[in-house]
Amino acid sequence: EQLRRCHRMLAPVSRMRRPDISNAVRFVENLLAFNLGRLQTVRSIGVGEMAAFLHDPGEYSLAEKRLVLGGATFQRGLAAVRTGGPEALTEIAALERLETRIWHIGALQLRAHHHLWRGEEEEARRVWSEAELEFVRLGSLWQLEAVHHASACVTAAFCGDALGLKRHIEVLARQVAAGLDYRAHLDVARGEHARLRGDLDGALRAIEAGLAGLPAGEGLIRPWAETARIEVLLARGDIEQARAAARACIEDVDDDHQQISFRVRAIRSLALAECAAGEPDIAAARLDRAIEDVEASANPLLLGALWEARAQVALAVGNASQAAHAAGQAEFWYRP
């Protein structure tokens, strides 16, 4: 809501062509779009911002130019890392080429999250340690801590890392008690942890509380919460509810939102629900299409999860050869 108010306040000057004003307007537009989950909008605004700035950079010094270009690139990178695909590495490399300390640290943050969204936890921890050291040197470790645990709850839950999720929940709970507005993140994270422990009723209550606490139009963590709820419904045996919720989620995660990881999670759950409902052929075809669509990303977490589901569907119909092939592919991606 604060970003929306800022955006409305900037409306009277939004058509001015002064680079400093237009950069400020686009920066707020990007922050708002990111928090609404409109990741494709973030990336397209970032391209437009850089093109406009390079066309008419004004009287900025070289250091100021790098600061502006780095801000646009970092925002684009925030959107890109959530797919775990190679496009994120392009944004990270662009930040590193600016040869500015603040964007070197920004590149480390993006690289760590890129690995997290791919399930590459050991590499993510190594890179994150580098970023922490840089923030300590700057005397600004609190900035890193303020955003890290809310985001890390999402990736830990997505990877099924119950122990890591528990650690992040404990820190996030302290941050919420201190006044940071991560209540919805905390509720959904607790729901995911309950799901991983097998407490399905508790999981459903917590996740639905998190969903109820989201502001209208929020689209950044809503797909996480919705897909978590779908997995709980599926585990409870509420097959038709899970199917309906998965279909709705897939429609919500449209091209603008670009929440590919959660779209894949919803597709996987829908396929497993279809298989449980006696439609294994439809489930298998759905998973095969998803695997083909995601293959170019080479994301081991997404492809491993899809192949694992494909093995489950094959086992359900007694096709041992297909199940063995799918299980082998799942093992390849989970243990490359």
Instruction: Please state the CA-atom Rg, rounded to the nearest Å.
Output: 21 Å
The count of helical stretches stands at 17
Main sheet makeup: none
**Low-confidence stretches at least 5 residues in length (pLDDT < 50)?**
none
Measured between the Cα atoms of the first and last residue, the distance is: 43 Å
Give a short synopsis of this structure.
The protein has 336 residues and is mainly α. Helix content is 79%, strand content 0%.
Please describe the topology of this protein.
Elements: H1 2-10, H2 19-35, H3 39-55, H4 62-81, H5 87-97, H6 101-116, H7 121-138, H8 141-159, H9 162-177, H10 183-197, H11 200-212, H12 222-236, H13 239-252, H14 260-276, H15 280-294, H16 300-316, H17 320-334
Helix pairs in contact: 1-2, 2-3, 2-4, 3-4, 4-5, 4-6, 5-6, 6-7, 7-8, 8-9, 8-10, 9-10, 10-11, 10-12, 11-12, 12-13, 12-14, 13-14, 14-15, 14-16, 15-16, 16-17
